[in-house]
Amino acid sequence: MSLIAQVLKGRRATGALAAASLAGALMTAPAVSARAEVFNPDSFTLENGLQVVVVENHRAPVVTHMIWYKVGSADEPPGKSGIAHFLEHLMFKGTETVPPGQFSEQVARVGGNENAFTTDDYTAYFQTVAVEHLELMMKLEADRMANLRLTDEIVLPERDVILEERRQRVENDPSSELQEVARATLFLHHPYGIPTIGWAHEIERLTTEDAIAFYDRWYAPNNAIVVISGDVTAEQVRPLAEKYYGAIPRRAVPERLRVQEPPPLAPRRVELASPRVQQPSWRRSYQAPSHNRGNTEHAYPLEVLAEILGGGPTSRLYRSLVVDQGVASGISAWYRPNAVDLTTFGIAAIPRPGRSVDELEAALEAELAALLADGVTEAEVAAAKTVLTAEAIKARDSLSGPARVIGAALATGRTLEDVEAWPDRIRAVTVDQIKAAARAVLVPAASVTAVLLPEETS
Amino acid sequence: MSRFLAAIRRLAIEAAGTVAIAILCVLPAAAAVDVQRVVSPGGIEAWLVEDHTTPVISVSIAFRGGAALDPPGKEGLAEMVSTLLDEGAGDLDSTAFQQRIADLALDYGFDANRDSFNGSMRTLTEHRDAAFELLGLSLSAPRFDSDAVERMRAQLLARLARDANDPGNIARRVWWSTVFPDHPYGRPTEGTPESLRAITIDDLRGFVGRRFGLDNLEIGVVGDIDAATLGPLLDKTFGKLPRSVEPYELPEAVFRSPGAVVVVERDVPQSVVLFGHDAVKRDDPDFYAAAVLNYILGGGGFSSRLMTEVREKRGLAYSVATYLSTLDFAGLIVGQVATQNARVAESLEIIRREWSRMREEGPTEQELADAKTYLIGSYPLRMTTTSSLADVLTAIQLEDLPIDYMEKRTAYFEAVTMDDVRRVARRLLHPDRLVAVVVGKPEGVTPTQDPPDGAI
Question: How much is the pTM?
Fold first, then answer.
């Protein structure tokens, strides 16, 4: 998703553009949140260690079936960047009994929709189908967990596909190129600095053997979570799960031991000026604690803070910079608490036509200084909680939404209790906690500022 | 069982019934869909599907007539109106209006396309009355205060500037202006920097006055509300709109191109190609066969012929897809592919070859059966949220389809025969008529004409 698509208007709009942006966001940063009275999930674990979660939704005789593997691009061996995502593509390329292409054809033949995605921390595959085809989906998904068969003949054209995907997502778009550099600069040592799709020069050298080695290392039932949302019960799912997934033996899976960041010592700044840019933009990312790493007590306050600062047209930064000062035409802020290691707190803005990036940045710095000095108000906190807790209710108005929220949480070390307690924990956040979190996290030395500029032409 | 549940259950069972042909199992007969026609005391009609599973209500509205009616030199007018209806209305200025949206935790927004102007809202049941009241204010008393107008103008200009060098965006603008040089469909719905700057507050009011009338409005409502409650709410919400607005007419957009290759040079590693030509409109008797044909050729996710030939076998692109664009005054089949500059000629050649092969040979029996089961079976998946089903209800009304369309749709697809698809393939697919716009630095692609003046 481009920076500007993300910050323009910053509203929960319903147009095609907004829908596309939301879809993009889901592919990289599941941000919808859960609520105790909302999902009421059932869960059980098979003898081989596979966890199964069922969220009942009887609105329609349809189910979303997802499998989440607790492995992502941050778990790749050095020099093999992109292998987690490459393997995700190759999982559609056939098993001992299902020839290449047949997985997708069988899903389509029953009227199903399917896809998959990879992030730093997890890899997920999903299908949405009429409920009577759930068994077929579980059979197919279990089959490719254990019986993937790859040959150079089908792997090598797919590597070209991935290079085209990289050109499409990154190299054809200076904003994405800059974002890749910014992230590599924010994380000096941790593999979060490496793009999930991989560096082009390393993708070009990935082999069938690399993919098989990664698959053998990580794709095991005891390293996976199945989440099913829809017109079924746990009682109905259990025998199917035992029949298909239960037949796959547990295997040793390595711990996710990633190198960690050194203490951040200096603010970083990256600028890209390109003749392919007309609209300048500005973006800052801070290293931030997640629910797992760093000062985890700041996680819930940071969620509320992101909503207060840049959650929409009533947010503090939008009101100040867009409405009152007219120095920006769009602004947003975000924070994603679910990560195995550290995460980021981000702010992005684009200057209003006729105003410079420098003016915009000065105005933002003044707002951040005021935030650190004075914190936020009770009224701001109350308004943010209203929006966030309503989002939790709306998350039920969806089939795949609950599966995505739960999968992303469990795949990064959270529990179902954490998911269910989310609204209560958001409601419990105080003004003082937000001030403390802002002071701890919005530290220049832990930040990278990325500026995209048109190239000056004579 | 909620009414919504019954409706969707019916759809899915129909789908399963067709699948049964392929997998040889027997499924029960279906019950009836229950889309309710609600007419308010004041005579305003909405289509309603009740569903009380979640305490939310979604409303989708559409006025006929969209960006194609933007006056020449004011392109982007409908789009600009769509950004301003939540920027102040009635006694509420922009800040107060946005505060209401936030306090009520609404999803709220508008957008314009070539043929219609659309709005949608999702509210928690507890805020139902206040939410409908706000929607009524947006439509009947938008303020268009000058500070809000300038702010939205700045946002739209920023978006144009962002997209100005995006290869996909350039390809779209050039393609539409190439195939419809003399029709409003050829003009950019998002405007140009010059046209956006030329739009006045009177223009914005003029659009609302010409388009926002009850005889021009379609409404779909889905969720935690019943007909008795909705009826009076319709009057309160929409009753202040004029009974009727001036009708409009546009000429048919005739596709006259003999086929063309247009190259727009840009220094990017990957060329983006938009390709297509004329096809069928939504009310054409061949529409269903054309939809089946499109699915097999390029519309069907990972299984289409283009996806197989371009991506799976040769690794030429991450995605290649075609779709039917059914507008009020034109019908088109359009596709897009993105391939590294050195191999874009190869992608284009394969696409032309597949176009010809389908025209000459038609699909296989298996492809036909698979396409029909997918197009029937996947339909209910579009309706798993209240907002997506509300949009479907409005879209059905905009197409002048009957209230039981969702039931009938299955039979329309089931009725498509191999002869139909072969005949429609010969009628519709014309590789020599393809207009391809290539943006990038393609190797081995020879342009046959220049982009139209002012298109980039």
Answer: 0.91
